[in-house]
Design goal:
By secondary structure, this protein is mainly beta. It has one domain: Barwin-like endoglucanases (Beta Barrel), CATH 2.40.40. The chain contains 2 helices and 8 strands, in the order E-E-E-H-E-E-E-E-H-E. The chain is globular.
């Protein structure tokens, strides 16, 4: 049996940009992506801590060290600059392996979107 479990989580980063005129996705600073074990084009769920919005999109690699968290396309309507969000991804794995799986969870400085 396969089940879906939490793979990666970036807990409470601040939205720095929202760009409606883009094809869609979330741009994440490459340092945060690497720390959270996320890859470009990976599906992620976004949870908006300020307004309760929850939606799905995919990752685009942002400039390394920029602190960028940009919601693009229609997702830009779900956030405002300055909102804090949680970014999560999941993995499908064998039930027995899932019992011992440890997700990668990152707690960046939410003011600068940098690692502590």
């Amino acid at each position: 049996m396969q089940i879906e479990v939490l793979k990666s989580k970036i807990h409470r980063v601040t939205v720095t940009e929202a760009d409606l005129n883009y094809i869609g996705s979330v741009t994440i600073d490459e340092i945060l992506m690497n720390a959270a074990n996320l890859i470009e084009n990976e599906r992620v769920d976004i949870f908006n801590y300020n307004n309760g919005e929850r939606f799905t999109t995919y990752v685009i690699k942002g400039e390394r060290g920029s602190g960028i968290i940009c919601l693009n396309g229609p997702a830009s309507f779900k956030v405002q600059i300055g909102h804090q969000i949680i970014i999560v991804s999941y993995a499908l794995m064998d039930f027995e392996l899932a019992k011992t799986h440890k997700p990668t969870v990152v707690f960046p400085n939410s003011e600068t979107n940098t690692l502590r």
